[in-house]
Design a protein that fits this description.
With about 350 residues, this protein is of the alpha/beta class. Helix content is about 35%, strand content about 20%. It folds into 2 domains: about 5-105, Nucleotidyltransferase, domain 5; about 155-330, ATPase, nucleotide binding domain (Nucleotidyltransferase, domain 5).
């Protein structure tokens, strides 16, 4: 099966055609134009394929594994769009634009369907939504499996913390090859500080803004999705720019400190959920290309056995062992496309 993998992000579109051996025969990366319209010319020059795999961020409680898309599935995905407003509408636009062959949806939430009730439940009234979903599951699943291969171990016997650090960011605690905890929740707003999202925030602060400052809900939503995180602290969500400024710019230095503080605390929490740590993985754009972030995090995690080889950390580019402690530490190139292909090839 020659497969087109469509990875729809909040600001980017990555297309990759994999042959039957999962070798790349075509790829293209684009930025989304303003709005949710599928980029014109995105499929120009693409070879013929047998099926399409679409990354869909939110599968809700219903979709816990990849599914072939029909009209009913598409309608149910649209019903979930308000839970992932940066991603779901664009995934739907891609689904609508690429027609004429079988298409499957692969879900970022599905990997976390294994969370036990204690990890998956908010302490809220029963008539309210109480489920924590988690996201970046395609990336976490691949990174954990690939790190286990590099460590020479069985993924089902390792306690792995996977750090997907990009414009969006989340962690997963992977024990026995299954997700047992994660940092995102009902929506992708929760957890770590991100490029334009704040991560975990006291809900009382948000209520105070509505009740006492008169902030409209629409404005609050826009600020949480687009004007928070690193963007709010340093004026940029681009980690490369922030790291170029933080030694002389107080705002950038604060953003760096906040980012690392939250990251370290969350890694420790993920390890606690598994009773320890065997493997630490960094993946995603920041995880793969910001050795200073990796080093700053590792410097605070020695109590978990994390220690980096400074030269290998600085030189790491892809699928590299950078650890020097009892906890193995790897940089893994994000290959959500391979995880999506694996899932679609098992569909009947």
């Amino acid at each position: 099966m020659q497969l087109l993998v469509v990875n729809t992000g909040s600001s980017s579109l990555k297309l990759r055609v994999l042959d039957g051996g999962d070798e790349t025969v075509f790829e293209r990366s684009l930025e989304w134009p303003k709005g949710d319209d599928f980029p014109a010319g995105a499929l120009d020059g693409m070879p013929e394929v047998d099926a399409v795999a679409h990354r869909v961020v939110h599968g809700g409680e219903e979709f816990t594994s990849a599914v072939w898309i029909d009209d009913d599935v598409r309608a149910r995905l649209e019903d979930l769009a308000d839970l992932a407003p940066l991603h779901q509408p664009r995934a739907l636009a891609a689904i609508d634009a690429i027609t004429g062959m079988r298409a499957a949806a692969c879900f970022d939430t599905a990997f976390h369907a294994t969370l036990a009730p204690g990890a998956a439940t908010y302490a809220l009234p029963a008539e309210w939504p109480r489920r924590r979903f988690g996201f970046h599951g395609l990336s976490h699943a691949y990174a954990a499996r690939r790190a286990a291969e590099l460590a020479g171990g069985d993924v089902t016997r390792l306690r792995i913390v996977s750090c997907h650090l990009g414009a969006g960011a989340s962690l997963a605690a992977v024990a026995g090859g299954r997700s047992v905890d994660t940092t995102m929740g009902f929506t992708p707003l929760d957890g770590l500080v991100m490029a334009s999202r704040p991560g975990s925030v006291d809900p009382g602060l948000l209520l105070w803004l509505i009740e006492h400052q008169g902030v409209p809900v629409a404005e609050l939503s826009d600020a949480l999705e687009h004007r928070s995180g690193l963007t709010a602290l340093a004026g940029t969500g681009d980690m490369r720019e922030l790291l170029a400024r933080d030694e002389y710019d107080e705002d950038a230095a604060l953003a760096f400190d906040v980012y690392v503080h939250r990251l370290c605390g969350a890694i420790a929490a993920m390890a606690a959920a598994m009773g320890g740590l065997d493997v630490l993985v960094f993946t995603g754009g920041v995880g793969e290309h910001a050795p200073r972030i990796r080093a700053a995090a590792a410097a605070r995690l020695g109590f978990l056995g994390v220690l980096l080889d400074s030269e290998r950390n600085a030189a790491a580019t892809s699928d590299a062992d950078i650890g020097a402690g009892t906890a193995r530490t790897f940089v893994i190139t994000a290959r959500e496309d391979l995880e999506m292909a694996r899932q679609v090839r098992t569909l009947r």
